[in-house]
Q: What sequence folds into this?
């Protein structure tokens, strides 16, 4: 009887495959994930697609892809003519890269000092930085603006860079400290026995070793800076110092009714980020899931 | 950041090797200053000092010339009890709590569900789903705000058409424009954008649960619902509570979404006003009302206290009670 | 009676076959050890028996029932994991009670069972602790306790000692052996450690590349390995292997010339051997003796001497460069560079053909006088 069962089983298998609970479960998992992926992407896709269509097509058939009769770049030309999008983009790039560079450099140096050397006030400074992870720098805006006025830095990119360095440092110091702690003591001790200076130990041994962590910190630092509206709005709202987020916001405020222009400006703001994201998503997700942020 | 390596500074300059057996006075640790100085200088002058100064400014008031004078707790008295100030304040606080409540109610369950699905064994395309679902989280809140403003605009009608197509057309409304629905709609947009964060962090936590543990539970007779409720969920609680405090801080600090979609006035009739927009208006003024740095500072101080309270509750009650389980 | 029967069990992942048809009979109350190098499929086999993986083909019968499609919990098994897999958020008591609670047993019954198991394992004072507050050995006991309370017919152990330090490993090993006698249950135990296998098993199943190489009692495997793999796997230090050629095929024995020129006799089944055939000769280090007292001998130059106290391991190279280990006397005064002649009885010689299959040794009523290998190998641990 047992043997019979064993023989019967494979013959039935292709039939039962469709009713197989495992397969059914797999199918429903994929269904839910696909539905949610569509929910996540659809709004963005609608904007991107319609940016390339005539005003008439945008309203008549918003879900259609542009075809020969409805394709137009008029929105983009309008945006580029009526605003200085290139300047906005350039400003964002400068501010983000400069802030990023200093956050990584100063953050790594501070993390090294706090984890490696024992000195009075070490714990206090570490806690001070840790608090900055939870307490948003925005709450000090009133005084930051006053400070920038006093320093004659209002409407300069320098003001933004300074604020963003201060904003990025706490998380950078935290993540990098955790990472520096995992560097084996022997490496540093071997160097010290060879009479290598503390500066060289940091720049030539430690810094190269923490590169993976630096990449993680870079992603976490970059995104909020690029996307920020608050500080550009308050510290550098002048035409020549607007970042792309602020520029788009102001532009759309001005040309609300020009759908082509609005859609195109949004597209211009979205696409570079999307491209960068798709290139670096692996790194980002690795950083997020590595438990770097606890 | 509690433990520091127990190396004293003298050990950094190994005297025996250099053959100079004197030098009891330690040289000034210039290298520490070099490493720590720049970060500390910028962080203290641009983050710590302004925050403390804001707390101080909240105790002052100014006259027409801009000169400030000490008024004690008067600003706070006004904010909390003087109708002219207190009505917007309590309104913003109430709205902000609603904003947070909607996030909590939706973001964690959806994030948890997606993370559970993504971590199902041998799932194909798992990485692709993850990348795509996380995408909106990467974009600027301002841009997302505009995107949804367009999509929900009755003028364009794209959402209306869509709802007619799935047979719900009669339910469509200009949600963003109505006093009763504007805040809820904005909250949903925000949840839509940021659900990737709980998803990702919970997913990571799920990956960290050893397979042996669920295997052991299965051998013990647990069905998948038992495994979820008795094994996985308890082990995810630390992550979920961390996501919650991050959401709390972000929500009580939010500004861009409301500002982009509804402007500084957070309409209609302040129905979508939250602490961030109130702070901005109080500080910069709007229409007829003059902005006031000192009142702005007072609002910021209250925001600070709210956030600090939340963080403290998390650190001292939630995190302590939910032990981090070493596996 | 919870006999376990494996009928031609196969497992493949996609196109990769991991197990190629395993047949095995396990009697009630037997302690069976699955042993082999990592990747040989022993853990997979255990997981198949547990029901954690699906069986691709074949039949698994526990207690006269085909259980291929039965949930793990309904197979009457309990498993102890290598990592212990204790639920980190539950106290020791709750860890042990979890399965019973799921099964819907009453609080009273649960408490009684858990407390009894805890008493057996001497962990009754730890019941309120969390796993992270326990030492490795204590965690191990809790993991075993969790299995005991389920009162299974069959216990499955997946390398349970590999996370313990050496001293604790020996102690726990002894305790698991005692536990088996006390509980009288069937145990299937996976390990890569041949000492554990020799000391614990009533029956050892040596696995290699998804197949059973040989199955038998510890002494059976030690004395009559059927393949070169088993011969090399069981015994420590490893059996010496030397290439050789068959000179003469008699009814009772073979005469061989080893690669270094030594002439050797071997008492094996000669029915499938031809003159001139290439073979591998195996001699265990403990069957080689310093001096020329026995019939045959090997001569080489000593390269390394390890004094372990009661024995001395002498590593020497034969004329052709083959390395041979000799188990010398504890007080041996031999030194590196010395010439050593090590002699052995023809009865202790194993012969393998080029496919690694052993030519069955002739079983004689008088066995070669060897130490009990179980005790001997245990002393190595």
A:
């Amino acid at each position: 009887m047992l043997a019979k069962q064993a023989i019967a089983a494979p013959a039935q298998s292709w039939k039962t495959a469709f009713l197989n609970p495992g397969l059914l479960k797999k199918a429903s998992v994929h269904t839910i994930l696909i539905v949610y992926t569509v929910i996540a992407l659809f709004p963005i896709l609608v904007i991107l697609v319609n940016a390339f269509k005539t005003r008439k097509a945008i309203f008549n058939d918003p879900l259609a892809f542009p075809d020969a009769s409805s394709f137009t770049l008029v929105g983009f030309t309008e945006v580029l003519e009526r605003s200085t999008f290139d300047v906005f983009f350039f400003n964002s790039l400068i501010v983000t890269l400069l802030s990023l560079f200093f956050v990584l450099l100063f953050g790594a140096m501070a993390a090294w000092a706090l984890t490696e050397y024992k000195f009075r006030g070490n714990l206090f400074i570490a806690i001070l930085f840790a608090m900055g992870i939870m307490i948003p720098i925005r709450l000090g805006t009133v005084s930051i603006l006053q400070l920038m006025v006093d320093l004659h830095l209002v409407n300069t990119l320098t003001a933004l860079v300074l604020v963003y360095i201060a904003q990025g440092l706490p998380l950078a110091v935290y993540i990098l400290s955790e990472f520096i702690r995992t560097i084996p003591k022997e490496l540093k001790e071997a160097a010290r026995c060879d009479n290598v200076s503390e500066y060289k130990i940091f720049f030539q041994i430690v810094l190269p070793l923490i590169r993976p962590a630096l990449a993680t910190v870079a992603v976490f630092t970059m995104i909020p800076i690029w996307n920020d509206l608050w500080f550009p709005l308050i510290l550098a709202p002048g035409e020549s110092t607007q970042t792309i987020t602020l520029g788009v916001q102001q532009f759309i405020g001005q040309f609300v009714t020009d759908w082509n222009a609005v859609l195109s400006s949004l597209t211009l703001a979205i696409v570079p980020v999307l491209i960068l994201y798709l290139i670096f998503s692996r790194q980002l997700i690795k950083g997020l899931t590595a438990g770097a942020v606890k | 950041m509690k433990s520091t390596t127990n190396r004293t500074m003298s050990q950094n300059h190994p005297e025996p090797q250099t053959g100079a057996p004197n030098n009891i006075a330690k040289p000034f640790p210039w290298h520490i200053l070099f490493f720590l100085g720049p970060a500390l200088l910028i962080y203290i002058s641009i983050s710590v000092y302004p925050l403390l100064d804001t707390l101080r400014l909240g105790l002052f008031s100014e006259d027409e010339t801009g000169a400030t004078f000490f008024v004690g707790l008067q600003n706070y008295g006004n904010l909390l009890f003087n109708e002219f100030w207190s009505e917007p304040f309590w309104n913003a606080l109430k709205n902000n709590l609603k904003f947070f409540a909607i996030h909590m109610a939706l973001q964690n369950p959806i994030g948890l569900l997606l993370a559970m699905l993504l971590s199902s064994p041998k799932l194909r395309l798992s990485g692709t789903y993850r990348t795509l679902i996380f995408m909106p989280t990467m974009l600027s809140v301002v841009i997302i705000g505009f995107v949804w403003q367009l999509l929900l605009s009755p003028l364009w009608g794209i959402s209306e058409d869509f709802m007619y197509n799935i047979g719900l057309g009669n339910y469509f409304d200009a949600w963003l424009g109505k006093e009763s629905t504007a805040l809820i709609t904005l909250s949903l947009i925000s949840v839509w954008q940021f659900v990737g964060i709980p998803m990702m962090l919970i997913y990571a936590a799920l990956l960290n649960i050893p397979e042996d543990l669920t295997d052991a539970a299965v051998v013990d007779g647990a069905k998948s619902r038992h495994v979820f409720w008795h094994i996985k969920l308890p082990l995810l609680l630390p992550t979920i509570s961390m996501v919650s405090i991050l959401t709390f801080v972000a929500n009580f600090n939010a500004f861009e979404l409301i500002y982009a979609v509804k402007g500084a006035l957070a309409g209609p009739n302040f129905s979508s006003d939250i602490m961030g927009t109130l702070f901005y208006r109080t500080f910069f003024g709007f229409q007829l009302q003059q902005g006031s740095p000192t009142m702005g500072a007072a609002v910021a101080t209250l925001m600070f206290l709210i956030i600090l309270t939340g963080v403290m509750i998390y650190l001292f009650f939630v995190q302590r009670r939910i032990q981090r389980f070493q596996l | 009676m919870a006999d376990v029967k494996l009928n031609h069990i196969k497992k493949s992942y996609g196109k990769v076959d991991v197990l190629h048809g395993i047949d095995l009979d396990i009697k009630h109350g037997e302690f069976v050890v699955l042993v082999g190098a990592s990747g040989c499929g022993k853990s997979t086999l255990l997981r198949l028996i547990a029901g954690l993986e699906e069986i691709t083909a074949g039949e698994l019968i526990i207690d006269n029932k085909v259980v291929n499609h039965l949930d793990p919990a309904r197979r009457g098994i309990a498993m102890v994991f290598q990592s212990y897999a204790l639920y980190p958020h539950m106290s020791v008591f709750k860890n042990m009670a979890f399965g019973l609670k799921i099964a819907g047993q009453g609080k009273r019954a649960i408490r009684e069972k858990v407390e009894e198991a805890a008493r057996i394992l001497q962990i009754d004072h730890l019941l309120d602790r969390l796993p992270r507050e326990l030492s490795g050995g204590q965690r191990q006991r809790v993991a075993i306790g969790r299995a005991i309370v389920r009162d299974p017919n069959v216990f499955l152990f997946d390398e349970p000692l590999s996370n313990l330090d050496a001293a604790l490993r020996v102690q726990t090993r002894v305790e698991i052996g005692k536990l088996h006698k006390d509980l009288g249950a069937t145990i299937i135990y996976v390990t890569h450690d041949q000492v554990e296998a020799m000391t614990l098993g009533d029956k050892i199943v040596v696995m290699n590349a998804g197949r059973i190489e040989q199955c038998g009692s510890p002494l059976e495997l030690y004395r009559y390995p059927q393949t070169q793999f088993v011969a090399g796997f069981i015994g420590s230090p490893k059996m010496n292997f030397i290439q050789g050629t068959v000179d003469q095929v008699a009814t009772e024995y073979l005469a061989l010339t080893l690669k270094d020129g030594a002439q050797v006799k071997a008492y094996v089944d000669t029915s499938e051997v031809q003159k001139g055939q290439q073979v591998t000769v195996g001699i265990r280090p403990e069957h080689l003796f310093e001096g020329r007292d026995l019939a045959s001998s090997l001569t080489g130059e000593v390269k390394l001497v390890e004094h372990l106290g009661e024995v001395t391991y002498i590593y020497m190279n034969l004329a052709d460069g083959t390395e041979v280990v000799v188990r010398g006397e504890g007080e041996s005064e031999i030194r590196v560079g010395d010439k050593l002649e090590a002699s052995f009885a023809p009865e202790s010689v194993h012969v393998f053909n080029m496919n690694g299959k052993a030519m069955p040794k002739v079983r004689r009523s008088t066995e070669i006088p060897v130490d009990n290998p179980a005790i001997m190998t245990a002393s190595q641990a």
Summary: The radius of gyration of chain C is 24 Å. Residues 367-381 of chain C have pLDDT under 50 and may be disordered.
